[in-house]
C-alpha cells in the first residue's frame, strides 16, 4: 500500500499553482481559470465512466487518477480545502450509523 495521500497531492497542486512554471500543467490550469478547470474535470469524469462501463481496469485506474487530480485543481481554484470535503464525508458516517455500529460489541 502506497503512503501517498490526497493531502500530499493537494500540497503539490498548491505549490505548482503558485510556481508560475511555464512547463507546469497545474500552473497553466490555474491561469486559465475555473471554467477551463471545471470543463477538464467534467471530461475526466466522462472518461472514467467510459472506462468503468467498458470494464477496462487499466484505463479506470488512469482516468481515476486524472479525475482526482483535476478535482483537486477545481477545489484549489474555488478556495475549498480538501479537509472541508473530508469533514463532510466524516459527518455522513455518523448519519448512517456506521461509526456507532462499528464500535458496538457484536452478539
Ligand atoms: N496528477 C497529475 C496529472 N494528471 C493529469 N495531468 C495532466 O492533465 C492533462 C490532461 O490531459 P488532456 O489530454 O486531457 O488535456 P490536453 O489535451 O493536454 O489539454 P486541452 O487541449 O484539453 O486543454 C495532461 O497534460 C496531464 O499531464 C496531470 N498533471 C499533473 N499532475 C500532478 O501534478 C504535479 C505537478 O504537475 P505540473 O504542474 O505539470 O508540474 C505532477 O507531479 C503530478 O503529481
Describe this structure in words.
Its main location: cytoplasm. GO terms for molecular function: ATP binding; phosphoribosyl-ATP diphosphatase activity. Belongs to the PRA-PH family. Keywords: Amino-acid biosynthesis, ATP-binding, Cytoplasm, Histidine biosynthesis, Hydrolase, Nucleotide-binding. With 107 residues, the chain is mostly helical. It has one domain (6-103): MazG-like (Helix Hairpins). It is 79% helix and 0% strand. The protein is built from 6 helices and no strands. It is globular and about 55 Å long. The protein starts with 5 loop residues before the first helix and ends with a helix. Residues 12, 16, 24-27, 66, 69 line the site of phosphoribosyl ATP (PRT).
Number of strands: 0
Gap between N and C termini: 33 Å
Strand content is under 5%
Model regions low in confidence, pLDDT < 50 over at least 5 residues: none
CATH class: Mainly Alpha
Mean pLDDT, nearest integer?
A: 93
CATH level-four homologous superfamily name:
MazG-like
State the order of secondary-structure elements, H for helix, E for strand.
HHHHHH
Tell me, briefly, the overall form: globular
CATH topology: Helix Hairpins
What is the domain total for the residues? 1
Q: Treating each run of at least 4 consecutive H or I residues as one helix, how many helices?
A: 6
The oligomerization state is single chain
Q: Gyration radius, to the nearest Å?
A: 17 Å
Subcellular location: Cytoplasm
Enzyme class: hydrolase
Protein name: Phosphoribosyl-ATP pyrophosphatase
GO molecular function: ATP binding; phosphoribosyl-ATP diphosphatase activity
Amino acid at each position: 500500500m502506497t503512503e501517498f495521500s490526497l493531502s500530499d497531492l493537494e500540497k503539490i497542486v498548491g505549490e505548482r499553482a503558485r510556481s508560475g512554471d511555464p512547463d507546469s500543467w497545474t500552473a497553466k490550469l490555474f491561469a486559465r481559470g475555473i471554467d477551463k478547470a471545471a470543463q477538464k474535470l467534467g471530461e475526466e469524469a466522462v472518461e472514467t465512466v467510459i472506462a468503468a462501463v467498458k470494464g477496462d481496469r487499466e484505463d479506470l485506474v488512469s482516468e481515476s487518477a486524472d479525475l482526482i487530480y483535476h478535482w483537486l485543481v477545481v477545489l484549489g481554484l474555488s478556495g475549498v480545502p480538501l479537509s472541508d470535503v473530508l469533514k463532510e464525508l466524516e459527518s455522513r458516517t455518523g448519519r448512517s450509523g456506521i461509526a456507532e455500529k462499528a464500535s458496538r460489541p457484536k452478539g
